[in-house]
């Protein structure tokens, strides 16, 4: 009897100690915080990507959709139901709704700061990663404050002032201002003791305290090339950048990394489904890299994945195809619409009198992997676009032209749309929608992100873990 009593006492003590340790662990805030923002990424962008993977390589869930915590975000901004990246990024970064096109401006409050700035003050190292230009709206909301997202140079000036340890991905748009008469922003980074490199191995070095890392190739706007154009441009993937950034930022105090898959949005502004799919895959691979880190530090890591808004009004299924679809058709697209339009412009300049047959031969060589035999209806669409582009731009109204082709080349849009129509992918707009966006989470205290929340709830929820 005495032995049993002693055994139960020891058991109770062990249980209390275990409970105490567990409570202590649960009360500690996360040491490593990853925030992933898929710019323009709605629920259907994820569904389309998974459907495409299912039909091309066998069924596969993305890393983000395997996360145990699932919710959704409302995206409306202070003065519009349909938001832009400036207002939405500000809400996510700072925890308060903002006006359309503002960058964490909050002119009536000196107390609202971005999550990145708050973490930096706590001693965390900060990494801002994006596939777009670094002074684009979403990354800018974490380090800058400006009344207009279009004040690119003034926004860029705030990046080196932030003293954040890492900026990585794209470079800066209008680095010497729109009139090209200001000091180059890259020179200011040098003055602020940032080491500048496009060699990813430098991120593994312990020699540098602050780094401005630019991808191997950046385009005219400062952005990284699309993943679908990897056969044209040399570039690092988002996952490579995130993996190396983790090595650079890891320290005893912890880190906060914001990674934006910014060109999901850009592709969907052009209604380019094939390109958007590859951007979602690249974004998800970066999330997988963070997840691998989480597996090594499960009690210290929090990963959150969301979007700022939905772009394109994307649908899986279109009216004329009823219940039929074949998303694998999209793998026949060789390059992005952006690069296709550039190639077409070069071809037009060197062949000003090209016929429709010339154009079809060019498109089958440059845009499709496997040449397409067009139906009579598709040939009529091509003829219509040809007439508008080459003969009579006034044959339809400006409003009608925008509805059909956006601000893009009618011919290149038509050839791309033929492919998406065959796949049964639809778009309702060239802009954003007011649709709710997904929210996935895993790791330390991640359960607080389930259900429906406002995008402005994300930062307060994270900061609440520190109270």
Core attributes:
globular, single chain, Alkaline Phosphatase, subunit A, two-stranded antiparallel sheet, 10-stranded mixed β-sheet, 467 residues, alpha/beta, 3 domains
Tell me the layout of helices and strands.
Elements: H1 2-27, E1 32-38, H2 43-57, E2 69-74, H3 85-94, H4 115-121, E3 125-130, H5 137-143, H6 152-162, E4 166-169, H7 185-191, E5 195-197, E6 211-214, H8 238-249, E7 255-261, H9 263-269, H10 273-296, E8 301-306, E9 310-311, E10 315-316, H11 337-350, H12 356-366, H13 376-391, H14 398-405, H15 410-423, E11 425-426, E12 432-433, E13 437-443, E14 451-454, H16 458-464
Parallel strand pairs: 1-7, 1-8, 2-14, 3-4, 3-7, 4-6, 5-6
Antiparallel strand pairs: 2-13, 8-13, 9-12, 10-11
Helix pairs in contact: 2-10, 3-5, 8-10, 9-10, 13-15
Short description, anyone?
By secondary structure, this protein is an alpha/beta fold. The chain is built from 16 helices and 14 strands.
Written description of the protein model:
- The protein has 467 residues and is α/β, with parallel strands linked by helices.
- The protein is 42% helix and 13% strand.
- Helix 2 packs across helix 10 (273-296), helix 3 (85-94) runs parallel beside helix 5 and helix 8 packs parallel to helix 10 (273-296).
- The relative contact order is 0.17.
- The radius of gyration is 25 Å and the shape is globular.
- The protein contains 16 helices and 14 strands.
- It has three domains: 1-29; 31-314 and 436-464, Alkaline Phosphatase, subunit A, CATH 3.40.720.10; 330-426, no CATH class.
- The longest helix has 26 residues, at 2-27.
- The strands form three sheets. Strands 5-6-4-3-7-1-8-13-2-14 form a ten-stranded mixed beta sheet, with helices on both faces.
